[in-house]
Amino acid sequence: MIIVAITGASGVIYGIKLLEALKELNIESGLIISDAAKIVIEDETAYKIEEVIKLSDNYYEFNELTSSVNSGSFKFEALAIVPCSMRTLSSIAHGYGNNTITRAADVCLKERRKTVIVPRETPLRSTHIQNMLTLSQEGAVILPAMPGFYSDSDTVDDQINFIVGKILDSLKIENNLYKRWQ
């Protein structure tokens, strides 16, 4: 199972499209949505929270610290935090597991499971970069939402698919969401 966590940063569509791609590929998914992300989903997209939740096979409440995903004995393959707010990134980098997302990330990192973090902030402060470095040194993949333009991307959907395809690539999941360099 791949856990998708959506935080309150701009760019929630990346997480939603990742869930859609996993469903299409018949890969079991879990979902955690932060309280702030619920507001951003309603603000940035036409999706209703219930629709996003239905895209996942398993849903975990944001403030449920007794959730199964918060334990190293619960088996899941990977966690993708898409998008990842700087607050969440900082909490994870400093071992502050105060909610289901940060605790699940803590489990992933300590268990050496694949962890993909898609930060969404610009410009970056030195502290943001240092936190990304800390997580990279612990084995997380830092995959900023920086679309490439070599794939003949003509639409916003093409740009979104490029990032989602790169996330799937980082998770070692075959996909054809973007045109690859030839």
From TrEMBL:
<feature type="binding site">
    <location>
        <position position="150"/>
    </location>
    <ligand>
        <name>dimethylallyl phosphate</name>
    </ligand>
</feature>
<feature type="domain" description="Flavoprotein">
    <location>
        <begin position="2"/>
        <end position="171"/>
    </location>
</feature>
<keyword id="KW-0285">Flavoprotein</keyword>
<keyword id="KW-0637">Prenyltransferase</keyword>
<comment type="function">
    <text>Flavin prenyltransferase that catalyzes the synthesis of the prenylated FMN cofactor (prenyl-FMN) for 4-hydroxy-3-polyprenylbenzoic acid decarboxylase UbiD. The prenyltransferase is metal-independent and links a dimethylallyl moiety from dimethylallyl monophosphate (DMAP) to the flavin N5 and C6 atoms of FMN.</text>
</comment>
<feature type="binding site">
    <location>
        <position position="120"/>
    </location>
    <ligand>
        <name>FMN</name>
    </ligand>
</feature>
<dbReference type="InterPro" id="IPR036551">
    <property type="entry name" value="Flavin_trans-like"/>
</dbReference>
<dbReference type="Pfam" id="PF02441">
    <property type="entry name" value="Flavoprotein"/>
</dbReference>
<feature type="binding site">
    <location>
        <position position="34"/>
    </location>
    <ligand>
        <name>FMN</name>
    </ligand>
</feature>
<comment type="similarity">
    <text>Belongs to the UbiX/PAD1 family.</text>
</comment>
<dbReference type="InterPro" id="IPR003382">
    <property type="entry name" value="Flavoprotein"/>
</dbReference>
<feature type="binding site">
    <location>
        <begin position="8"/>
        <end position="10"/>
    </location>
    <ligand>
        <name>FMN</name>
    </ligand>
</feature>
<feature type="binding site">
    <location>
        <position position="166"/>
    </location>
    <ligand>
        <name>dimethylallyl phosphate</name>
    </ligand>
</feature>
<keyword id="KW-0456">Lyase</keyword>
<protein>
    <recommendedName>
        <fullName>Flavin prenyltransferase UbiX</fullName>
        <ecNumber>2.5.1.129</ecNumber>
    </recommendedName>
</protein>
<feature type="binding site">
    <location>
        <begin position="85"/>
        <end position="88"/>
    </location>
    <ligand>
        <name>FMN</name>
    </ligand>
</feature>
<keyword id="KW-0288">FMN</keyword>
<dbReference type="GO" id="GO:0016831">
    <property type="term" value="F:carboxy-lyase activity"/>
</dbReference>
<dbReference type="GO" id="GO:0106141">
    <property type="term" value="F:flavin prenyltransferase activity"/>
</dbReference>
<keyword id="KW-0808">Transferase</keyword>
<dbReference type="InterPro" id="IPR004507">
    <property type="entry name" value="UbiX-like"/>
</dbReference>
